[in-house]
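User: Quick sanity check before I run a bigger batch. Here is a single chain. Can you write out its predicted 3D structure?
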Amino acid sequence: MKKLLFLFPVFLCASLISNACEICGCGHSNYYIGLLPKFKHAYIGLRYQYKHFNTVMADDKTQFSRDYFKTVELWGGWNIGKRWQVLAVIPYTYIHQVSDEGVANNQGIGDVAAMVNYKLFDRSSALSKKTLVQQQLWIGAGIKVPTGKFSIDETDPAVVALANTQTGTASTDFMINGTYDVRINKVGITTNASYKINTSNRDNYLFGNKFSAASFVSYSIQKNQLLIVPNAGLQYEDISGNKLNKELVTQTGGRLLTASGGLEFSFRQFTIGTNFQLPVSQHFASGQTELKSRGMVHFSVAF
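Assistant: Done. Predicted structure follows.
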């Protein structure tokens, strides 16, 4: 099976430690779309992700934070029959923050997520003797369960900042997504759209829902048993504001457009890949919080 299945949205829970980032709350909302390794029956692997945010308060530039959070994920997938697919991820997050108040660190298990996808169609047609067109359409739904730590005092004046220091959200959240993949010989174009629906946790804190859409172009280069797949694309995210006791938390939520480039290598049952993203445009906390960069490397074994 030479064809790659692309764009699995990993709904991990990542967080920021920051007094300044209490105005943003974007750490629990950001995840990116990645590439699935080539597999027929199942795969298991490790995935490392990082994100870097900077925040400077508009009314007092002496208040700042530089936030780095890194996540190692155990992730896997299983094909059930010809149309069903199950995907799961277990994240462990490490957070490092340098701010006007000093240096702070936090780490721990994140929220476990699982998704079930269904393949609506898988078609191949020849436009000519030398041109083969392959198409796949997947739809899916998933759940994120509160396995990460979340403990705050909702009466604390710094409650929003405290919420962003947690490795979990203490809420059960739901995801829906669709992925359309078209391949013309060695060139692939994959478009994905997803929506994450969050619920309030026991502390009456609600992280904003998130819409995400992306489109990637890839090119497959076969060298004997080695498959090389460079890829590039754009991703758009729209994150709603957070709520505490059903009241909107000001300066939370935002919009983000990133450009992405990556490279995947598959040899027999082994796949290794990397991806790097830079912001094209963004708007978080009235421009006070900015994503600087984010990236990922992964390794997996298929069965």
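Helices lie at 159-163.

User: Great, the batch can go ahead then.
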